[in-house]
User: Fold these one by one.
Assistant:
Number 1:
Amino acid sequence: MREPAHLSTIAGWREWVGIPSANVPWVKAKLDTGARTSSLHAFDIEVVDEGGAERVRFWVRPWQESSDDAVQVECPIHDRRTVRSSSGHTEERIVVMLDITMLGQRFAAEVTLTNRDAMGFRMLIGRQALRRRFIVDPSRSFLGGRAPKEVRRTNRGK
């Protein structure tokens, strides 16, 4: 069966996005059609049992070169998955549902939580979140605009 056609927005291979459900207004993300699921840099990940309902509490650092503005987030656990990284390493990750804003759109996405300190971007947007919403132009960046200058400076640790 053929999928219905959808209007898609052109996005660059990297974009500034917001995560309103995590109270993170700006984070630089890489759009990766090779990755199935989105992922977010998280640390001090703690599973909390609230009367039989599992939740996860974690911290997010939105800036690459800075520990400023860390935000604590707590939300229900959506799933647990074994994920294989681009280097071939496998890791079991907690999956949460987060609202993301990008290029004027707001949508819910499955996001795995992992330490992305060694990666170039704090967030990766995978093809499930991009599907039927965005077409990625690998020759372009920041089509949704850039974060304010002071935000970009913070992201570079200045």
Number 2:
Amino acid sequence: MSLRGTAHTSTALITGGTSGIGLAFAQLLSRQGHNVILVGRNTDRLHQTAHQLSSSTGQQVDTIQADLADRADVQRVAERLSSQDEPVDLLVNNAGFGVHARLTSEDVTVHDEAFDVMCRAVLVLGGAAARAMLARKRGTIINVSSTAGFMAMGSYSAIKAWVTTYSESLAVELRGTGVQVTALCPGWVKTEFHQRAGINTTSIPSWLWTDSERVAATCLKDAARGKVISIPSKRFRVLMWGIRHLPRSAIHAASGRITSKRRAPQSENGEVR
């Protein structure tokens, strides 16, 4: 991805940047010559990933230890995004986790944390980045959503539907300002996300899987082209086109079948990726 109009070495801030799709973004952007700021909860993992990236690419890699379920930590990250002296040219809101607590569960702790990490943090960080980018009349915000947001598979689908709609709404608000907003909506991606979340993937056909580097690369290209919705791989674009045109009753039935097949016996709670 080319961050046009930048005289300095551009900087990307990536939440959840030590694994999965976030790490793929970090690796790809670092190889392309961008400096990177990794945001994550695990200090050891942050430092290890930063050292590996910096050693292999020669680019500057900084870290911010933060739990995005903690509002004070989110504010610290927002303050970094607000800096005009050390501008962030690209924000990737990637941090997230699988949620399998039932919507009828009396204990809503997991839902509360999911809202904080995948909705509120995205809103606060997206707003902070947008304000700073508006002042410079350039920048890119990528919010990692999911094709699950087009389905009806519990709290995770509802949250990702919000992320997609929020991204579209922010893109409308920022139209013509030089700030690009893109929602990344991947399907099944080969990462440790599913294992950590306790998702049973044995029933998923091999042809539906894609790799995280391809997902990140496709999204960066789509953002550079001004696309608001990025769905990596032709097969998922075709599938999502079909889903958008099917009766909602058919989507509800399909969502129920997928949920029952992939729910692992122990997966009542979400697991942070």
Number 3:
Amino acid sequence: MTTKTRGSGIRKPGGERITHWLGLQKEYLHDTYKARGKPASPTVCPECGAIFRRGRWSWGVRPAGANEESCPACHRIRDRYPAGILHLSGPFFKAHKEEILNLVRHKEAEAKREHPLCRIMTVAEDEFGVIVTTTDTHLPRRIGEALWHAYHGELDLHYGQDPRLIRMNWKA
């Protein structure tokens, strides 16, 4: 009995191109902050103390003899390159600014407890309100939905051409 093999086992460059239905080639998306490979386990981030073990970043006690490497969140913070932007504005926001920013910080702490890479980078004021930048694409959405459930208002979600950046606007 003979078995058929699917190929030679050797990949040819460009042999697996995915094309759009119009015939246009799909571009390769390069994410500088996504690791090309897994760090050696255990690895500790020297800046925040997050530990990489068993395939994921988590919080815990620093293991003896652990390697040191910056986590993707600290890398983004150092480069000032956010993955999420949340803009808070409106007359209700201005009247209840401290209360709303406390909710924002609470949602960050809740997410950060389980996922060390979900962090707020900056909270900056502009002439319209406050801009919150994050190291993760899921955190702005989590915060925006919590604000909408608590205070209602208008919540707009924008995925731009770059899928690695999410923009949300909450106005109340």
